[in-house]
Amino acid sequence: MHSRPLFQSTPILLLLALAGSVAALAADTPKIVVSETVIDLGTVARGTQAVANFEIENTGSAPLELRNLGTTCACAVAEFDQVIAPGGKGRYAVKVDTSMIAGPGQAQATLGTNDPETPKVVLSVRVHSRSYLSVEPGYFRYDVYQNFPQDSTVEQTIWSNDGAEFEVTGVRSELSVGSRTMPVTASFRRAGDDERRANTPGSQWKVSFALPRDTPVGAITGWVRIDTDHERQTTAHLPITGFVRPVFAVTPLAPKYQYVQAELVKEPYIHRLHVRNFADQAIGIASLRTDVEGLELSYETEEEGRLYYVLVTATGDLPVGKYDGKLFIETDSEISGTLEVPLSFHVVAE
Fold first, then answer.
1. Are 208 and 159 in contact (CB under 8 A)?
2. Predicted local distance difference test score (pLDDT) of residue 23
């Protein structure tokens, strides 16, 4: 009689142990259940915050972890419970700023989870944003140059579509140029009899905004918020967009060079700076100067009052060394004043 060697049963024991471990791991996992993935909020007043609350349930045996993977609309932000205990329920709320939506709209939010079977869930919010307040022209748009002399005031007319009487209770605004945020103000008043829209009953108001003259060069963005006591719509948002151009653009803005002294003795080096005027009025160059000794300055006129070439000449009179300074371009206009252009160069021995 032959007995089976003991070592032959070892693989079976290992398989059983592994199977038990896998079963234990499989049992110790979260399981996400979403009661509904699409919520229709219906018609809401434009400017209000509409909130869709999605119920999240964890039917697994391990904590369910949630994270936000983003939304398809800048109008929507998500707030949610980050961890839901086994057998528990949680909330995932999508808040929609209806001031950024005109008419019917939809925003989708993608929810990430640690459920191995459902790593992400897409949730949709539908909403119809209805305006009970109308504003004309409905935006502030600018295309000006720096220190512009003209009046930049843009006036808006606001009225109720349902002919209701209402008061404008306040106006708030904010302006951004690049990474810089500027405090700005807007004003409001009740429209006069000669300013009212014809055949439009109810209250009518005027809201005015002026771009500050010291707004720096760059793309501008911002908003004006109008607060009212209208029963159905308490706020109206107006965008501010545009660009502030420099009066003069100098290119290259900060030239850097290296010269060989012996070569400068044989032939001076002339560098041309391109100077263009973007203002509405013609502006001339009154004088040129620099705080770097040894440079010769002159300019050529390509288009009178509009386009110039400033010539910076380096000669063999410059000793070996590093030079850092500025070129000053004096203009004949108060709106442009003096332009300052950084200069940096290095004269080396042969």
1. no
2. 47
Residue 187's alpha-carbon distances to 10, 168, 225, 258, in angstroms, are 86, 10, 11, 55
For 249, other C-beta atoms within 10 Å of its C-beta total 14
In this prediction, residues 306-324 reach a mean pLDDT of: 87
- Classify each residue of 254-270 as buried b or exposed e, where b means 16 or more C-beta atoms within 10 Å of its C-beta: ebeeebebeebeeeebe
Dist CA 339 CA 249 (whole Å): 9
b/e burial code for range 14-41 (CB count within 10 A of at least 16 → b): eeeeeeeeeeeeeeeebbbebeeeebeb
Q: What's the rounded Cα separation, in Å, for the pair 317 and 144? A: 44
**Three-point CA angle 20, 26, 29, nearest 5°:** 140
Q: What is the pTM of this model?
A: 0.62
Kindly tell me if the per-residue pLDDT of 168 is higher than 90.
yes
C-alpha to C-alpha distance for 95 and 51, rounded to whole angstroms: 4
248-297 pLDDT, tens digit per residue, is 888 876 656 676 777 877 888 888 899 999 888 899 999 999 998 888 99
Instruction: Evaluate whether 28 touches 64 at the Cβ level (below 8 Å).
Output: no
DSSP notation for 254-299: S-EEEEEHHHHHHS-EEEEEEEEE-SSS---EEEEEESSTT-EEEE
Measured CA to CA, the distance from residue 68 to residue 57 in angstroms comes to 16
